[in-house]
Description:
Helix content is about 55%, strand content about 15%. By secondary structure, the chain is α+β, with helices and mostly antiparallel strands. Strand 1 and strand 2 form a beta hairpin. It is elongated and about 125 Å long. The mean pLDDT is about 85.
Amino acid sequence: MGNLPTGQAGKTSRPAFAAGRYFKYAIGEIALVMIGILLALQVNTWNENKKANTNFNKSLVNVFNDLEIDLVRVQDVNAYYKRIDTVVDNIINGNYSEADYRKNPGLGRVIFYAYEFQVTDMGYNVLMQKTENIPVGYEQLIAELNQQYIKTKENVEGRYNGLYILRTSNHKRYALNYPWFSQRDSMNIEKSVQHYANNTIFKNEADLFKYFGPRDYGRSIQNFYGQGLSLYLTLKTILKDKSPLPRFFPKNAEGYDAIKNDYLGSYVSERGTNLIIKKQNDFLFVSRDDLPNTSLITMTSKDTFYNHRNGVTLTFKRDESNKVIGWSNINNTMHKVEDND
C-alpha cells in the first residue's frame, strides 16, 4: 500500500514524455507551415506591388510626355498674349497714330481674334481610369496631378470661353454695323484707320478685351505653365529620368549655385500669409503650407527672382551681415522667419 515500485513509475512516464515530444513537434510543424504561408503572402504582395509600380510608372511616362509637349506649346501662347497686352495698352492710351494703323492694319483687329491653348490630358485620364494601379505613397503626386489637370485646366478652359464669346461678339457687331469692316479696298481701309485711331468706343472695347484676354486668359495659361514646371521636375525624379532638362526649361543666372541656400526657409507677410522657399532638383520653389502645388522661381540677378507661375518679380533683402531677411514684390512684403522667432 506504499509507493509504486520504481520500474512501474518509469513505465507510466514514458508515454507522457513521448506525447509531449510529439506535441512540440506538431506545434513546430504548424509554425513552419504558418511561416511559409506568411512568406508566400509577403512575396505575393511584393510582386503585386512591383507590378502595380511598373504599371503606374508606365502610365506616368505618358503624363510626363504630355506635359512636356504642353510646356513647349504654352510658351508660344503665353508670348502671344504678352505681345497683345502691349498692343492693347498702346491702343487704350492712344499711342498709335493713323500712320501706325495704316502701316500695320492688324493693330486694330487684335480684339477680333483669340489664340487658344488646349491642355493635353490623355495620359492623365488614362492614369486616373486605373486607380487600382496607384501605389501607396503617391498621394502628394496625385494631388498635384489633380490640381494641374482638373482645377487649373478648367480655369484655362473657362477663361478662354469668356474670351471667345467676347471676340465673337466684337466680330459680329463690327460686321453688322461697319460696312468697311469686311472690305479691303483702299477707301474702306482708310475708314478703318480713322476708326481705330480716333474712336473712343474702340478704346473702350480694347480695354474690355484686355480684361478677358491678356489679363484673365493670359494669367490662366501662365499659371498652367508655372505650375507645370514644378510638376515636370517631380515626374522626372519619380521616373528616374536622367536626360538633360529640355531647352524650354528656365535657367538661373550666373552665381546662383553660390547663394541659392541663402533664400531657403519660411516667410510670413504682414497679413499672416505663410510661404516656404524650398529646393527641389537644385531649383528653388515657393509654396504655401496648405496647398499641394508650388511655384518655380529662377534667379535673374543676385537677390532678384522671377516667379514663373504668376509672372511676378521677387526682390530679396539682406541685412548688414549679408543675411537674407525677406523679399518684396508688387503684391506684398515677406519677412523671413528665423528659428528663434
